[in-house]
Amino acid sequence: MTKRLASPRAASLATVAREAGVSVATVSRIVNGKTGRASVQTIARVNAAVVELGYQPNHVGRALRRRESRVVAMLAPNLDNPAMAAIAVSTEAALRAAGYVMILCDTHDRADLQDEYLRAMRSQFVQGYVLVSAVKSAALSDALARGEAIVFVSRRNPDGGGAYVGIDNRGAGADAADHLLARGIEDLAVIYPAQGSSSTAERVDGFIERLVARGVPTERIAQASAPGLSHLQVGYDAARALVDGAGGTWPRGLLCVSDLMAYGAYRLATEQGVAIPSECLVVGIDANPLNAWIAPWLTSVHIPYRDFGAKVVEQLSSLWSGTVPDDCLLPHSLDS
Predict the structure, then answer these.
(1) What are the HTH cro/C1-type domain coordinates in residue numbering (predicted)?
(2) Which of 28, 190, 194, 246 would suit a FRET pair with 258, their CA atoms being 20 to 30 Å apart?
(3) Calpha distance 76→83 (Å, rounded)
(4) DSSP structure class, residue 289
């Protein structure tokens, strides 16, 4: 084979085929890793021609022709929330290790933005979607009806069914109840966002169901919620509604369905001169790594966000192979 310098732009499957003395189809199979039908000598000639000519496979062009890509879109709300950022970091790393590129979009928990991103990503021929804390929306329902590969994370599919990665949220709420009862606290309350979701509803239900099962009357379990998308503000406002509804008295034990809500409740307690945790033991859910630095007063249910990414990729792989996988529930623990 004559050694020469060639422009990578000039190299094509046809020029590689001529150089190696094989068909274009043979070159296409070999450069795409399908070498089973080729002899060792043929593979060596093709690979040598690829190097000599500087051939670069046009993955983008092939993806466009097949209406597919190595790109996965993640749609998540409120990326200033450390939990959302942790899920994004874990998933991006796992996808990158599997040979995919991730596009990250912040939906701000709005159905219209979620739809806008879903339609935009479809026009880019993304191969799959990771929806973190999805909300019900028209484009989502359409995507599900088309059978597109979608994995739901933290919050279940608002249309029901589908691939899911998260924790046992009812179990997390129940563990919080057990933790408070084990410390002899029976004056208990829970606060949560008024804009409900499957995850927050399951945490609240698990908390209340466990307390009732262990003999705490339902009427003695105080509840309060507040509107808004910022869990910091929701925690502050819901705690105020809770305390105002109790005539200014704080409960001895309080479950906040996220650590950010616990931060908001703590702000109100500080303003009112209530000592946390001696006067009110607060339990959150997330176990934000920042807790050790800024919230040593907080007990929190640990969610293994760093392990989410690998499970998301497994769920996507199942969907790409035509299988709807079972829910993937990762183990949680309560850090005290």
Answers:
(1) 12-46
(2) 246
(3) 10
(4) T
